[in-house]
Amino acid sequence: MTVGADGDRRPGRERLSERLAPDGDDGAPRGGAIDGTAIMLAAAKASVPASSLPRLLDRAQAYLDGRAGEYAQGFECVHEDDETAVFLVPLGHWDTKGLDLGFSHREVDAVRRAHAEHLRRVGADADRRDEFETALEIREVAVVSRSVKSRQSARR
Asked: What is the mean pLDDT of residues 81-90?
C-alpha cells in the first residue's frame, strides 16, 4: 500500500528504496529496479542474507542498465512502464552475468529469484500470471531501469 499526502491508502508497489532511503540520497542499497515485495520474497527463498540482496541487485542493475540497448534489441520485452522494462532472456543468463559480476552461486540464485519474483508481481498486477509462469519454465528474466533517476541510483 502507498499512503498519499492526505493519508489516503492506495494499492501500489512499494519500492525497497522508499523504506531504506526516504530522502533518496544517502547511498544506501536500493535493490535496483526490482519491486520491494519481490526483493523480500526472493530474500526469504535465497541462501544469502536478506541485508545483502539490495547491494547485489544494485550491482546487477548497473550492469544491466549499461547494456539496456542490447537487451532492447536482443530480447523479448514482456512488460514496460515508466521505470522498468522486463525482458525474457535465455536460461543460464544469470549464471553468465553472475560470473561477469563476480557473484557466488548463491548470490546468482538470489538475483535470479528477485528478477523472477518481479515478473510474477507484474503478472499478478496485469492479470498475466499464468502466461509469465509458463515463460519462467523456459526462460529467465532481466529487469532493466528505464528512468534516469533509477539508473543513477543503480550506479552508486
From this structure: 95
